[in-house]
Write a structure and sequence with these properties.
With 545 residues, the protein is α+β, with helices and mostly antiparallel strands. It has 16 helices and 23 strands. A seven-stranded mixed sheet has the order 10-11-12-1-13-21-14. The protein has a four-stranded antiparallel sheet with strand order 5-6-8-7, covered by helices on one side. Strands 16-20-15-19 form a four-stranded antiparallel sheet, covered by helices on one side. The protein is globular, with a radius of gyration of 23 Å.
């Protein structure tokens, strides 16, 4: 394979040669023309993430880029390590003998970016805002009698009924983590999206508001007053030690442009390189190409349950029968080395992994004729399926194109509507009819630690329009089984209940799991300490001067 830069080229020389060309390109595109404004003495890490950042509120959306932003700015009460175990982060805890009272004590040294100490009242307000939107938090609140600050550093959570997953839900890294915010900000309605001015946290980085260019560029500076924990970093647990002065996220939707920028030394980190370009990156001795999310991701299709045609379960089943994981994964990833079929809604590598309830056609294909028959039996009247397709995010762009083709082969009318990813993220929250700016179907991806059990999996939420995840299925039977799972204490009981939940979810077609994939990230060898984590984080990372 011919590389863009021969091996004899040093990183320094590549920077010199690439700088003029890339500066011209970025100035033309307006991608990061403010680059020159960065302090000359600053040790700056520049990263291209999987998407641009427009939505800044990590409570009102499950978009990964917004969650990733949240981890830069806000800290969490608890963290989760690489064994799926909750660990102290902002607070330690104790549990009463009867398991009904949890006491959290804030550690010393917690300060807000605009000065002032973090208090338990801030945590209470943050907990309440989080629990109003997160599916797991909603389930937890069904079992909570009270959450209160008993003094400035102590938070007490009292259960009204047994619940086995308190710590796990408060520690989970996604999809909506329990980010802690100042009380004045956290007290805002969870239906009100936080603004640029609200990006005040106590996390390891400070959001630089006057350098924010929505969708194009985000800048973070090291928060000098942040005191990391002493334990080694593991996923979102342990010490968040910041060793760079600045982190800049620069959006480049074109895969070749991003590759060229990394090869030229104009950026340091590329979260989601195009798979077909990986050989070029792997051939460059100045780069590291490695999986940081070792458990990988699940790609999925989601229906809108509120409007035809997918308000009819028979039509949803027809769509399920029409789907073929191999076709979707081949289009999304291309190289079978990086993907695998998997019928489990919890991920095939997790303790709850199972194929219960899944039709064979999902992983093996051949379901088109059965889909046609189901569609005919359902009396499908040709109502168009408004399917949203993001054009600027390589990890979510191919799925709807292939899905549209598969649905059309089964007899569906499909209206494939292109848009950028951030527009999709905003539009999917609309409960308006598809003809009035709503939608019928979209596709997204989840890291496996986001779906590994029925409580954390946002798509296994049956609370409908007033608490469910986008699509809003209203399914009391599903909620009853999730409650049953939350009370189970033995592994065998949990697994049995999880299987029943999945069987029910496939019967109702709550969503369609479309297989798993794991794509490496790429970064300059000037970086060291990149954490293997389901969340791309920039603490623990050093950059050579």
């Amino acid at each position: 394979m011919t590389t863009l830069f021969p091996r004899r080229f040093s990183a320094t020389r590549r920077r010199l040669l690439g700088g003029v060309a890339m500066a011209t390109l970025f100035s033309t595109l307006g991608v990061f023309s403010p680059l020159a404004a960065a302090p000359a003495e600053a040790n700056t890490l520049r990263a291209v993430m999987h998407s641009g950042l427009r939505v800044l509120d990590p409570i009102t959306t499950t978009a990964h880029i917004t969650r990733d932003h949240g981890y830069m700015v806000f800290d969490t009460l608890l963290g989760m390590d690489d064994q799926f175990q909750p660990q102290p982060q902002m607070a330690d805890w104790s549990i009463s003998d009867d398991g009904m009272t949890y006491t959290f004590t804030l550690r010393d040294g917690l300060k807000w970016h605009d000065d002032g100490e973090v208090t338990a009242s801030d945590v209470v307000a943050s907990f309440q805002r989080w629990a109003a939107r997160d599916g797991g938090g909603q389930m937890l609140m069904d079992h909570v009698e009270s959450v209160e600050a008993t003094d400035s550093k102590t938070l007490t959570l009292t259960l009204s009924s047994p619940f086995a997953y308190v710590l796990e839900l408060m520690a989970k890294p996604s999809s909506v983590p329990l980010f802690v915010m100042p009380e004045r900000i956290a007290s805002k309605s969870p239906d009100e999206t936080l603004t640029v001015e609200d990006q005040i946290g106590s996390g390891p980085f400070r959001f630089v508001a006057d350098e924010y260019d929505p969708g194009n560029r985000v800048v973070y500076e090291k928060f000098e007053d942040y005191v990391p924990r002493e334990e080694p970093a593991s996923w979102t647990a342990g010490g968040k030690v910041v060793s760079v002065d600045r982190v800049e996220w620069i959006n480049m939707s074109d895969a070749q442009t991003a590759l060229s920028a990394l090869n030229a030394g104009e950026i340091d980190f590329l979260e989601s390189p195009s798979v077909d370009l990986l050989p070029v990156l792997q051939a460059n001795p100045d780069l590291t190409v490695e999986k940081i999310n070792e458990l990988g991701s699940q790609t999925i299709g989601r229906f809108n349950f509120l409007y035809p045609p997918f308000d009819d379960p028979q039509i949803r089943r027809a769509a399920l029968m029409a789907m073929n994981q191999t076709d979707v994964l081949a289009s999304l990833v291309g190289n079978p080395e990086f993907y695998s079929t998997c019928a489990s809604m919890y991920g095939c590598s997790t303790p709850l992994g199972t194929d219960a309830g899944a039709p064979n056609s999902l992983t093996e294909g051949g379901g088109t004729e059965a889909a046609k028959q189901l569609l005919e039996e359902a009396g499908y009247d040709g109502t168009p399926v408004v399917m949203m397709q993001p054009t600027d995010a390589p990890t979510v762009s191919p799925q709807p194109v292939i899905a549209a083709q598969l649905l059309r082969q089964a007899g569906f009318q499909v209206d494939l509507q292109p848009m950028d990813w951030q527009t999709l993220v905003t539009r999917r929250a609309s409960q308006q009819p598809p003809s009035e700016g709503g939608w019928n179907m979209f596709f997204t991806n989840w890291y496996i630690p986001e779906v590994w059990n029925p409580l954390v999996n946002p798509m296994l939420n049956g609370r409908g329009k007033d608490g469910g995840w986008f699509g809003w299925p209203d399914d009391s039977e599903l909620e009853s089984m999730r409650n049953e799972f939350s009370r189970a204490t033995g592994d065998e009981d949990r697994k049995a209940i999880a299987e029943r939940i999945q069987q029910h979810a496939f019967e109702q077609v709550t969503y369609i799991p479309l297989g798993e994939y794991s794509i490496p990230a790429a970064w300059s060898n000037d970086l060291s300490g990149i954490l293997h984590s389901p969340v791309p984080v920039f603490w623990n990372v050093t950059k050579a001067e």
